[in-house]
Write a structure and sequence with these properties.
alpha+beta, Heat Shock Protein 90, 4 strands, about 30% helix, globular
């Protein structure tokens, strides 16, 4: 954690958002590599990042990764082994938007990163 990261948010919803991102990173990341979670000040807001190593997410999949009921091209529109429908990242995006923020994903051969930007109003 770096800088002033205080803010007024719905803590249960942010816990849910972070839970989706961390579970996703654990599930799809390299099994022998850690998942990193960071919180940093970013000017007028706060940035949450979840990083993991693992297979590259193709650009076509990144373009629709936050769409409801979508999965990667090899698992599209299927339930996973846990019975999940693929709504976690969609819900995470909606939580970020509900707080006036944004979420994005990027992926390359070294890591996949989900970045959540949140505005804040500190007391």
């Amino acid at each position: 954690m770096q800088g002033d990261t205080c803010g007024n948010w719905d803590s249960q919803r942010l816990q849910q958002l972070l839970g989706y991102l961390v579970r996703n990173a654990i599930k799809y990341g390299a099994p022998d590599a850690p998942v990193y979670v960071g919180v940093n000040e970013d000017g007028e807001g706060v940035v949450l990042e979840v990083r993991n190593s693992g297979p590259v997410i193709e650009q076509l999949d990144l373009d629709q990764i936050f769409d409801p009921l979508k999965r990667g091209s090899d698992n599209e529109n299927k339930h996973d082994a846990d019975g999940n429908l693929g709504l976690g990242l969609y819900i995470a995006r909606e939580i970020a938007k509900g707080h006036g923020g944004s979420i994005e994903a990027r992926s390359d051969e070294t890591e996949t990163v989900f970045t959540v930007g949140l505005p804040r109003s500190c007391n």
